[in-house]
Specification:
The complex is a heterodimer of chains A (191) and B (202). Chain A has 191 residues and is mainly alpha-helical. Helix content of chain A is 47%, strand content 11%. Chain A has a 3-stranded antiparallel beta sheet, sandwiched between helices. The chains are: A mainly alpha (191), B mainly alpha (202). The interface between A and B is medium-sized, with 20 and 20 residues.
């Protein structure tokens, strides 16, 4: 069984002007694809040959982990988005965010800070912990919260390749745009 | 005295076509400048404002992450600008050439090792040519760490650093870090690296 690049439920230009088609062509068509290709080249002959992506993320180290986690992270990231999305969560997720962070506005501020201040390449995450509480964490490079036993709900890719063609050094502008792309129904389904 | 952004010895467009002018300008006036500003802010009021950058870097484990990240960023970029020049390239000469042949076999082999160090550095970081105990070695570090830092896996004096943060090449090369690394050899300033080599071995 080999891993495959997931299909996106929207066109590559559907999130413009926040994420340009050009960025998507590289981020999805090159970076994400390369992680898939690398992983398929790395796992044959290892104990991970028939393993799920989640198992590899939990147990592997080095290049196998890096590529597996980057496949998972990018799929998770891209599938959070929808054209004309944004707004605020509703229902149980909205209640949990208010309970854990005070308000949606405070949550946004904390999450954005985690995304903007992560030094180097990595990901900012909203996770659900085993005790049901929500937390915002930073992971470097390919880091993935599944490894810590957390359930990922939302992520923002802050590798420079995620935003450099559109925003260059202005990562805060990218993170500000990010909120307008989130399909909160998807995030709620993960919760 | 606060740290200052150094001026470049050449114009932003003078490394074209290997490194484009827009990348050079943003890299210098935005990224490097931010490291300088953040470093000054991180040191303010700590009593360490007047220490030399190298003194701070070599004892970096005693400092908070903001000093490590921004002090490293300032040091690394200052070195990076100097090991490039317009119409660079070619081969090292003299003692450096002899040392390269001794430790790597040939300059092509050194380039191959450095390209490999840069390509396999996952995420953001730097590839280095280091003088370690009088010998030449190639290494890489994550983020803005460098071989002078007491936390580095391979410790020594860096005489050449190649920036493999995506911001160093993304506008022109996007995901093709290998093409950026190949192009770098056309702007390398071997005279400056020779100068640093002599200082490091004496």
């Amino acid at each position: 069984m080999s891993f495959e690049l997931p299909k996106l439920p929207y066109a590559l230009n559907a999130l413009e002007p926040i994420i340009s088609q050009k960025t998507f062509e590289f981020h999805y068509g090159k970076h994400h694809q390369t992680y898939v290709t690398n992983l398929n080249n790395l796992v044959p002959g290892t104990k991970f040959e028939n393993a799920t992506l989640e198992t590899i993320i939990k147990e592997a180290e080095g290049p196998v982990f890096n590529n597996a986690a980057q496949v998972w992270n990018h799929t998770f990231f891209f599938l959070t988005f929808a054209p004309n999305a944004g707004g605020e969560p509703t229902g149980a997720l909205a209640d949990a965010i208010s309970k854990n962070f005070g308000s949606f506005a405070e949550f946004k501020e904390k999450f954005a800070k985690a995304a903007v201040t992560l030094f180097g390449s990595g990901w900012a995450w909203l996770v659900k912990k085993p005790d049901g509480t929500l937390e915002i964490i930073q992971e470097s490079n390919a880091g993935n919260p599944i490894r810590k036993g957390f359930t990922p709900l939302l992520t923002c890719d802050v590798w420079e390749h995620a935003y450099y063609l559109d925003y260059q050094n202005k990562r805060p502008d990218f993170v500000e745009g990010f909120w307008k792309l989130i399909d909160w129904k998807v995030v709620a389904s993960r919760f | 005295m606060a740290f200052e952004l150094p001026k470049l010895g050449y114009a932003y467009d003078s490394l074209v076509p290997h490194i484009d002018a827009q990348t050079m300008e943003i890299h210098h006036t935005k990224h490097h400048a931010a490291y300088v500003n953040n470093l000054n802010n991180a040191l303010q009021g700590t009593g360490n404002e007047n220490r030399k950058l190298e003194e701070i870097i070599t004892e970096i484990s005693k400092y908070p992450a903001a000093v490590r990240n921004n002090g490293g960023g300032h040091f690394n970029h200052s070195l990076f600008w100097e090991v490039m020049k317009p119409n660079g390239g070619g081969n090292p000469t003299g003692d450096l050439s002899d040392a390269v042949n001794k430790y790597f076999g040939s300059v092509d082999k050194l380039k191959e090792n450095l390209n490999n160090a840069g390509l396999t550095r996952f995420g953001s970081g730097w590839a280095w040519l280091v003088v370690k105990g009088g010998e030449l070695v190639v290494s890489s570090t994550p983020n803005q760490d460098n071989p002078l830092m007491d936390i580095a896996e391979v410790k020594g004096t860096p005489i050449l650093g190649i920036d493999v943060w995506e911001h160093a090449y993304y506008l022109k090369y996007q995901n093709r870090r290998n093409e950026y690394l190949a192009a770098f050899w056309n702007v390398i300033n071997w005279e400056e690296i020779s100068r640093r080599f002599k200082l490091a071995i004496h």
